[in-house]
């Protein structure tokens, strides 16, 4: 094992670099990804090492970025598009939903679009409007897209490479407030030793309540589990990692053991991805549930100004309150 201590952002950079070294058809494109290295420096140094033809600074036009990537993919390339901030993906929604997601079915499988759309997501960085969105439900609802979310440096390193290698389009969510979190990453591990891209992981075993999370919420849930342990409650925290396809077997296996479940995400609760999880769990685990599946997330409001975001985002106290309520039935 060759372990390096990397931030999540550096792990993504290292994973992108390895993918570009291994396949000359991998291209990186987006606003300021070249000379600047991206606003979060995720692509830092890549243009210097691979040239302007493979790391492409684009105009400020998200629809054009994804549309160009679709054309490049049809010519045999593997484009990796960076959407600078989550709230800026919506101008590209037409290309993503009506073209990128549909081409495989439209061509009866004759054509594939191996395009990765990287989206820094979520709040917690004190940013202004349109810079702290959680738009995952829009894309999990769109058939034809794979949707994944990393939460830690080790997964960031492997998952970005697996997404690039996928024959299908992948929406890749990156938790921007976790970009600076550090952990050991085995940068020389064989891909055969990596967890499959669409497998969930039990990141903390437990007995009393299953807590489901992904992306930026995983760390918050782990902190809540540590606090709950001091009160004698054992929370099993599962990092979903993949939202579509969903590793429903790992989810139901845990809930059938614990009998209780809390779902946590930063997006508004109403119509959020947690609703799909709650419905599926209720269908499959009905006779093993001791209480309803509860959801903890953002309010049904536009993302607030930075001084209010701590009240908007799920925190340790709100997660523990939901855990308490699961025992009140």
Automatic annotation (TrEMBL):
Alphabetical GO biological process terms: branched-chain amino acid catabolic process; response to nutrient
Cofactor(s) listed: thiamine diphosphate
Gene Ontology molecular function: branched-chain 2-oxo acid dehydrogenase activity; magnesium ion binding
UniProt protein name: 3-methyl-2-oxobutanoate dehydrogenase (2-methylpropanoyl-transferring)
Assigned keywords, A-Z: Oxidoreductase, Pyruvate
E.C. designation(s): 1.2.4.4
Organism expressing this protein natively: Actinomadura verrucosospora
Family matches, as Pfam families: Transket_pyr (PF02779), Transketolase_C (PF02780)
UniProt enzyme class: oxidoreductase
């Amino acid at each position: 094992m060759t372990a390096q201590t990397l931030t999540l952002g550096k792990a993504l950079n290292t994973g992108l670099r390895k993918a570009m070294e291994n396949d000359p058809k991998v291209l990186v494109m987006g606003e300021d990804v070249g000379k600047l290295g991206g606003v979060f420096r995720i692509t830092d140094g890549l243009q210097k090492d691979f040239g302007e033809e493979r790391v492409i600074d684009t105009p400020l036009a998200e629809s054009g970025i994804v549309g160009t990537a679709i054309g490049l993919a049809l010519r045999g390339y593997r484009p990796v598009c960076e959407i600078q901030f989550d709230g800026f993906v919506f101008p590209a929604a037409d290309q993503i939903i009506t073209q990128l997601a549909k081409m495989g079915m439209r061509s009866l499988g004759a054509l594939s679009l191996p395009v990765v759309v990287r989206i820094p997501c979520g709040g917690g960085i004190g940013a202004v409007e349109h810079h702290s969105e959680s738009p995952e439900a829009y894309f999990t609802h769109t058939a034809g897209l794979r949707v994944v979310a990393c939460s830690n440096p080790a997964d960031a390193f492997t998952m970005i490479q697996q997404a690039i290698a996928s024959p299908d389009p992948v929406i890749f969510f990156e938790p921007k407030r976790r970009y600076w979190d550090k952990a050991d990453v085995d940068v020389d591990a064989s891909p055969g030793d990596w967890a499959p891209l669409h497998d969930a992981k039990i990141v903390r075993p437990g007995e009393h309540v299953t807590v489901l999370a992904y992306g930026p919420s995983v760390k918050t849930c782990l902190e809540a589990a540590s606090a709950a342990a001091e009160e004698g409650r054992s929370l099993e925290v599962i990092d979903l990692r993949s939202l579509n396809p969903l590793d429903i077997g790992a989810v139901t296996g845990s809930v059938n053991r614990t009998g209780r479940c809390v779902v946590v995400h930063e997006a508004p609760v109403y119509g959020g991805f947690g609703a799909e999880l709650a419905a599926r769990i209720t269908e499959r685990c009905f006779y093993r549930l001791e209480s309803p599946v509860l959801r903890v997330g953002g309010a049904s409001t536009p993302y607030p100004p930075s001084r209010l975001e701590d009240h908007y985002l799920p925190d340790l106290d709100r997660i523990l309150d939901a855990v308490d309520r699961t025992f009140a039935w």
